[in-house]
Design a protein that fits this description.
globular, 223 residues, five-stranded parallel β-sheet, two-stranded antiparallel ribbon, binds BIS(adenosine)-5'-pentaphosphate, Rossmann fold, alpha/beta
Amino acid sequence: MKIVLLGAPGAGKGTHAQYLSDKYEIPHISTGDIFRANLKNGTPLGLKAKAYMDRGELVPDELTVDLVLDRLTQDDCKKGYILDGFPRNLLQAEALTKALAEKGESIDHAIHFEIDEATILKRMSGRRVCPVCGASYNINGLPPKKEGICDRCGNELIQREDDKPETVLKRLEVYEKHTAPIVKYYHSLHEEDRVDSSRPLGEVREALDAILKGDADGCHSEN
Ligand code: AP5
């Protein structure tokens, strides 16, 4: 099952990508996490991406598209994958469609996470993330069991650099200009899949389960 998660910064893509990844045992591929891991390791890619990320702008397509298309050729993607944060503009979306079509494949679901700006701003200010495994928490409603510590791997949680209010506003502006148009692009190719991601976690999960029900052939699911 090949899934693209669409939605504004802070809409809950990463949180629910992790849920779907655990449920269907397919990888969660987040371009933001890939860039942050490269930055942490001081790679040339990480250093180049940092300047754009700090400003809330998109990392150039030439650093992004091949990176993702190459990732999709790895063995763990054979059963499918969940793309979170990619594609981010029409060029990336068309490059993905073309690369998949060359292999006779296509995306099965492009799910749009709909949410209002006030809820986004509240969630971003309370977000805490694990710099090691990428798990995401929120001090305003989804806290870890032990304050400041990741439930999954026990490492100390941090606040993301680009969650500063001024950078968040820039990211929302970039989303509206470059990323929102690809929702229409996917809905011209697929049945419209959307969830109201301002709802509580359990309700968003139920909505996702309803969308993906019956599509999980070949994917492990016990939940
Ligand atoms: P990226 O890391 O992709 O960030 P983003 O898309 O802006 O999305 P976020 O990670 O901020 O939010 P999310 O939707 O995953 O929300 P989350 O689940 O954490 O990108 C960062 C930067 O990298 C970009 O600005 C750009 O520079 C660069 N980049 C990345 N990909 C790129 C690409 N393809 N091309 C070019 N540049 C690229 O949830 C948010 C909070 O809400 C959390 O605290 C969570 O616990 C909480 N929460 C979630 N759901 C609920 C709920 N239902 N109820 C209550 N709380 C909830």
